[in-house]
Amino acid sequence: MPNRHNEKHELERRGLLFVLSSPSGAGKSTLSKMLLDADDNISLSVSYTTRPPRPGEVDGEHYHFTDTATFKKMAADGEFLEWAHVFGHRYGTPKAPVEAALADGCDVLFDIDWQGAQQLYQEAGPDVVRVFILPPSIEELERRLHTRAQDSDEVIADRMSRAKSEIGHWDGYDYVLINDNVEGCFAKVQQILTAERMKRRRQKGLIGFVRDLAAT
Ligand code: 5GP
């Protein structure tokens, strides 16, 4: 009888592309990190960007930092699954690592903006799950951006005005969460991921399993 289970004794299933978007400062990076620490079956898509690194950011870990000419060439060569202009810089998701992770049976987490979520959905609709994180209030968002203290006042003011327009894209997502409490919000992110993984159409091993059940 063929083995319809992986080593964790779960049925084989299609990997999913899990997108977390939010305006800067709404807590998406914290939630992404919590998810990656808690779940061995999901890996982060590390984007390319032409923006300079912030203090503490590591090349290859937070982003692949690159110049505009290299980025443009990669885009022309079709190396990105999606890419967009955000805050005056280019950001793109490299195709190859995503394909490798999915082939490995791993889900992939994307910390990308609404334009990326939209393009990814056009490329891989049924495999994409889109989650948008809202801040509890505009005042709290501004407070968080100042606390992060990585950007100048001018950059923060720019991010605040962009945050308001990003929030306007909430209806392009499958799930919208309000991050007023990070643990509570994280629990909801995990519940969404768990339920999406169990969807019948993602359970590749189900047909064979049921066939075997019926044949016994
Ligand atoms: P930051 O410069 O603060 O790290 O990111 C700015 C915005 O760009 C965030 O909303 C982030 O989610 C988005 N972003 C990061 N990587 C990508 C990417 O590869 N594609 C797209 N479309 N957006 C990205």
Task: Please provide a written account of the structure.
With 216 residues, the chain is an alpha/beta fold. The chain has a single domain (10-208), classed as 3-Layer(aba) Sandwich (Rossmann fold), CATH 3.40.50.300. It is built from 8 helices and 9 strands. The protein has a 5-stranded parallel β-sheet, with helices on both faces. A 4-stranded mixed β-sheet has the order 4-3-6-5. β5 and β6 form a beta hairpin. The mean pLDDT is 91. Guanosine-5'-monophosphate binds at residues 21, 24, 47, 51, 82-84, 86-87, 91-93, 111-113, 115-116.
Low-confidence stretches: none
Number of strands: 9
**CATH-derived architecture:** 3-Layer(aba) Sandwich
The number of helical runs is 8
Q: Please tell me the overall pLDDT.
A: 91
Structural class based on helices, strands and sheet pairing? alpha/beta
Fold-level CATH name: Rossmann fold
- What order do the helices and strands follow? EHEEEHEEHEHEHHEHH
How many structural domains in the coordinates? 1
The largest β sheet comes out as: 5 strands, parallel
Radius of gyration: 19 Å
